[in-house]
Amino acid sequence: MESNSKWIGFINPLSSESQELLRENIDLENLFENNKELIDIILNIGEGIFDNDEKIPKNPAELGLKRLEWFFREKNDKQLKINEYSYLYNPQIEKYDIISFHLLAQAIGYKFNINSREVKLFLESQNRLMEERLSRISPELREELINNILSQLSDVTNLKWTDLLSLIETKKIFLEDLLIKNSKVILTEEDFREYYYEDIKNWDERRIKMVYEKIIGKQVKDEIMRQLIITNTEEYLKKIKEKLNIIDIHHSIKKLGELIEEMLNILNEKYSTVYGEILSGGLNGENLKGEKLIKDAFPPCVLSTIEGVKSGNRNDAIVLFLTSFISYSRLHPNVFKLDQHMNLSDFDPNLKITYDEILPIIYEAAENAVPPLFKDQPQEKINITSKLGFGMHNEVELNHEGETKWYTPMSCDKIKMHLSNLCHPDKICKKIGNPITYYSYKKWLLQRDGNSNSKNNEANKKK
Ligand code: SF4
């Protein structure tokens, strides 16, 4: 029979073995450095990932991000090829998997509220991973493993049936499947022997084991074990939050928190139902193509920036936020739908649209700012050129393209955090996570209503 030792931490990253392994191997200073051992393991066991380097996690931080990405895509991406994340089910990554679990917990505990959807996503992803991993091992090993883990979980000896309400309510287990004594759920063989000692004391070993296995079903134990690990994970996150009140979090964990937020925003943009609606809304994605800007479809934050920013963050509002919003909305509104990085000239080869339609709006906003941006800080023109991908120069010129990167649009969360005075959300804002999605969606609504108005006018004329 296979050994189950390597599986314990792979299923329960909070076990004492896992904690010890974590203490011995975690290296926060080099969290984002390529890890040769991990890369070698992934290259050895991975499937369907060699066509794209981005699919290969190269350090424990990236492995953590992949865990969340896998779960998000499993729920939302119908095109997902299951092989792409096959390494997540292979216990050869156990050590790095445990590290990545704890890194994620720290970063999520630091960055998000305990009731946030990000925390929920993390917990659900852990539950789903356990389920998927358990489904891939032989029935004998699986049973032995679950018994082992259950006996290690301290809460298991004090488990009441009321602790399992969420499982009962979702019909994952039924009350009548549980062996309950004085409201306590009997799960381990030790407890079974102790609580029913008088009834079974004269039985032989074989019979005791057989009856125990029969009464306490495998499925019940599996569900309960996973539920207990998830409950412990929730407690772990709460403790992390409490600790953060007294100690400063490591800069690498902060960085990972930012990356998680960024990745989830991008995934949300890519797979959100709003995007789906736009794409399947009868316009065949036409509104995601670059076309003349429609001011009526701009979100409130963009309108207030163009009308004139009055407060201290005037420079960031125009250089970081507006420049990327206007350029991507006009030329490449489906930026979050495509994975590869593009240059501005891929959409505007002779820069005519940039000179005639994009820069005039940005410069208008700079002029309307109080005080006007270029009057006291003319060097900001260079920063605008740089954010469009044309290096540190006063003018946008093709021969400088690529010297800097075309800066992608800021998410609503970032705007709320850094440029909060610009954000005056309206009804549409509730459905989106990025102003560029607002723009695409509102444009689609305007076009749809315009079409139906013109159809109504036609019908009225015929009457
Ligand atoms: S929610 Fe987003 S799109 Fe709406 S105003 Fe705020 S930043 Fe702009």
Please explain how this structure is put together:
- This protein has 463 residues and is an all-alpha fold.
- The protein has two domains: 5-156 and 217-262, Transcription Elongation Factor S-II, Chain A; 272-452, no CATH class.
- Helices cover 58% and strands 1% of the residues.
- It has 21 helices and two strands.
- It has helices at 5-11, 16-25, 36-45, 60-76, 94-111, 117-135, 139-152, 165-169, 189-195, 197-200, 205-215, 218-244, 251-271, 273-279, 300-307, 314-331, 352-368, 373-376, 380-387, 412-418, 435-462, and strands at residues 180-181, 184-185.
- Strands 1-2 form a two-stranded antiparallel sheet.
- The chain is elongated, with a radius of gyration of 28 Å.
- 35% of the residues are buried.
- Iron/sulfur cluster is lined by residues 299-301, 412, 415, 423-425, 429, 435, 438.
- The site of iron/sulfur cluster (SF4) has 11 residues, from helix 15, helix 20 and helix 21.
- One of its GO terms (molecular function) is metal ion binding.
- It comes from Methanobrevibacter curvatus.
- Keywords: 4Fe-4S, DNA replication, Iron, Iron-sulfur, Metal-binding, Primosome.
- Heterodimer of a small subunit (PriS) and a large subunit (PriL).
